[in-house]
Every structure is written in structure tokens, then in C-alpha cells.
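Now for today's protein.

===
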Amino acid sequence: MRSSRAFAILVILLSSSLAGCSGNQSDSGGPSSGVFEVATWETGDWWLYTFSTPDYSDDTARLVVASTSEEDGTAYMLAISSRTEARRHAVLNHNPFLGRITHSELGAFENGVAQPVLSFPLEEGNSWSFTLFSMEWDAFVSDVSGSMAVIIATSSDGSRLDYVFDNEAGFYYSFTWKDPMGVTNLRMMLSESGSGHTGDVYFVRGGDLFNGTWEDTGNDIEIRDTFLVNDHPSDGEWDEMIYFIDADCGSGSSISLTLRDHMSISALERIWGPGASEMGTLGTIPYPSGEYTLTATFTGSSTFLRVRIAGGITQSWSL
């Protein structure tokens, strides 16, 4: 069943790509093959997605409806079934479809404003605009066939979104964001969906604090950087600081990493010797506000280090 639907989607996307080259209307000129009204979600509904990005390894997360009464009863809360995955999504910040989702349009919030990434009813030829990834998009429904509606959105710089709403699943079948050069920044693919999820689910409200990448820095180099950790602008103190580390040393190379607070107390220490590699490490640091100093020392020419740190405020629900 899933493989036949995937083949149908491939055919639709290929035809939609050709239609997208000629403007914001279908070339067929014929009547719409269907109209989709907004889906209604219930607590415990879930979707299992694989997320692919160019800079990080793929990850899989089960998104779960944790609440149906957010924003004075006008929005859902979409959480994740794993605390670790919720932290990962908070620090990497690549999933726009977490947190509050509006009842009326299944709209995601960006900078506190609901954005109609979908605009119901979905009908072939319908068009609208929204903001996502801090970019303005013009969208239109290029095709409605079976249980799938294909949407294409473009920005003024040549970036493009291609996404498919699955009317049976009640959410996205796929979602792809490409930059003006055609490089895929994000791809979401639905693996499974269902209802009646039970157990604890989590949403971690994240805020970027530090992001640094160093590659082939040269022999015997020390890099020092400082950053200030303040509270969340509207929700007060962070519960914790979340870090994400990728490190790789070639033969004859080494890396040392230290993070200290304003009292020179070490909050994080790592050492990698020749040939060592550590990719996708996720961890937490107790949150005191103030100034932090990150020091990275590189020996040898073949090294790679990436460090991301975010503040996190965790909400949880028991379903």
C-alpha cells in the first residue's frame, strides 16, 4: 500500500515540477480533481517522519498531538515521543512543525505568528502567501489526486518548497526545501501514521546560544570564543543548555574542547586523539545565566569540529 502511494506521489511531483515552470496555475485548465478540507486532530494522533539535512545525519521522530486546546482553544500542541529527540530538534532547529499548530489551517508559528503553510480548502489552482524559515513564500496547489494534494511555493531569491498533504494521514506526506542552487536544505518524509499514542511526549522550546564550525584549521591552533547566555525573551529562565557536537580527527591530529562559565568552572570538556571521531553527540549542561568561554585547540591539519549550543525549556504531557 505504501509503495504504491509512493509511486503515485513520484508521478504527481514530476508533473507538478513541469507545471511549476510555467507559472502559478495548472496547465490542464480542467476542473479540480478534488477538494480537501482541514483535518481534525485528536490527542494521541501521531506521524513518524524521517528528517534529512545536508549538514547532519538523518533522524527519525514521532510527532504526537499532545493537546488540542492551545491558544484559547484554537490550536494543537505537536510534541515528540522521545525527550532525546525533542532536545535534538531544539538544538538543530530544523523542524518548523513542532509546538502550536492552528486548528483552522494546521498552520505553524514563526516568531509568534501563525503561518498558513497550508490554506484550506486545498483545491487545484488555489494560491496564497506565508512566511517560513524567515522567508516570504508564494504558494499554489499544483495538483489534487486521490488522497494527495501537491503544493509548490517559491521565494523571490529562487528558493523552492515542494510539499504534499496526505488527506488520509491528515498531515504532510513529504516536505522539501531547496535553496536557489537546488541544494536540499530539509526533507521530511512520512513513514507511518496512526492514533491513540500513549506515554510521555515532549516539546522543548529552544533558543540558539552558540554555533561554531572549524575545519582543517592548521597545526597548533587555539580558538577562543565567548558568548552571553540570557533568559528566554518571554518565558524566563531556560531549564537547561543543550549541546550538539560533531568531531573528527585525521591521523596525527587531535582536538581538545573546553567550555567554562564566568567563574572559570568547566561545564564541558572533550579530547579527541588521532583517528578519533564522535558524531551527533547530544548532551545537557545545567543552566546558570552569564558569560561562557569556549576554547578549542587543534593539532595537525586534518580536523573537523562543530559545536551547537541552545537553551531549552521543556514541556511534557502524559497521554
Q: What stands out?
A: The two ends are 29 Å apart (CA to CA).
